[in-house]
Task: structure prediction
Amino acid sequence: MSTTTPPTHPQRAGLHRILIVGGGAGGLELATRLANTVGRRGLSEVTLVDRYPTHFWKPLLHEAASGHRDPASHHIEYAALARRHGFHFVQGELEALDRSECLATVGPILDLNGNDVLPRRLLRYDSLVLAVGSVTNFFNVPGAERYALPLENVKHAEEFRQKLLTACIRANHLREAGAALPEPTVNINVIGAGATGVELSAALRNAINLLSTYRLNSLEPERDVRVRLIEGGPRILPALDQRVSAQTHARLAGLHVDVLTATPVSEVRADSIVTVTGTELASDITVWAAGVAGPPLLKALDGVELNRQGQVLVDKTLQTLSDPRIFAFGDCAACPSSIVGVFLPPRAQVAHQQAVYLSQSFLRRLTGKRVDRFTFRDAGTVVSLGRAGALYQGDFGLGLRSLIVGGRAASGLYAFVYRRHLFALAGLTRMAIETVSQWLRARIRPSIKLH
Ligand SMILES: Cc1cc2nc3c(=O)[nH]c(=O)nc-3n(C[C@H](O)[C@H](O)[C@H](O)COP(=O)(O)OP(=O)(O)OC[C@H]3O[C@@H](n4cnc5c(N)ncnc54)[C@H](O)[C@@H]3O)c2cc1C
Result:
């Protein structure tokens, strides 16, 4: 049982206390950068709170879900990074805020029997930064939350991978036993053809091919497993250029992904999905990748204003509208873009640029300098289709046509984005060692997780 009188977590008085909640793509980079700047100069004490003990870079989740990446090789321990850079790490889930006292309540950590490992704690802040990411938006589609799998964290990715493996092992066994089976035997439906849905569908086809070569030799991937990508709008990758959308569609078809566009889903059932026209499609595994919303926790925070998607409304300095001591960025924030009324998209690139901006603006604030506004510079988008290559779209404004690049350059850019993240956290030497060790591991292990 958790205690009811939370003790205040020990913190140093006298220093400006920056409390960052959420150690994801944005929050962990910010904690690292701040510790290296304002922390090292003795201007501030930096504390990072996350509900998990380790960080996994979210854009790799579809590769973890398909078994191409073993999350165990890509976890970064917060405590190790905290010690190296000199910030504090507190494990627990933000539960509540008391804005008048500048106190954040972090929930208890319980063991498997529900006993406290760590009690509920109170953390004092002078500046609070919310970087708690996003959750899946099921858009109230009946059955979606109950029967479709989201892809928000490593646990979801592993749950999906186990379902995929189990379904394929069963189908392989039945084929070996000579059972009369429907074709296809396994139906996987990915709902939502944004970058996540597209990348996951491509990774799945490749994963199923690999599984059939390693241990499931009676499985014929194209006959036995159907991967459908279902999009409500008229084309896949609606946020990208028409040409990227068309080229990706063609490559997915080449990979034997069945792409259905203009097909909104109206219901998800235990073993099927229903489209708005009433068509019922068999589904052994349904994945929901059709949009994100702010985490429900944000609604419970004292006086923090949200938009319709439940994201925190911030101004161009990433401060919340109701309280200048509270900042929000990354997926959980609704940050105005250069187009009036349009917010920046939930992307790692946005979170990264905002982390860089916030680390610089805190230094300026704490040394009495003027703080500029945040400006997002779109460095382009890469969509990876695994062995079918990648496509990069760069937009340079001024009415110019988008630049579209494929081939090795696009695949290289895709790999570079993760390396840049590692570099920001660990520095050049560690990033290089990590890269080499991951490369070596990939040489000695099967290219897909088999259990
Ligand atoms: C499969 C997939 C593929 C993607 N691919 C790309 C891509 O190719 N390019 C791209 O730009 N973007 C991509 N994205 C989007 C990108 O991952 C996000 O935009 C990015 O991770 C947002 O960073 P963040 O720091 O805001 O949130 P996150 O990285 O989601 O981190 C949020 C952190 O907050 C913690 N947290 C949440 N609630 C609490 C709480 N109450 N208390 C304490 N801690 C909490 C979580 O544990 C987590 O560590 C992809 C997303 C997915 C799911």
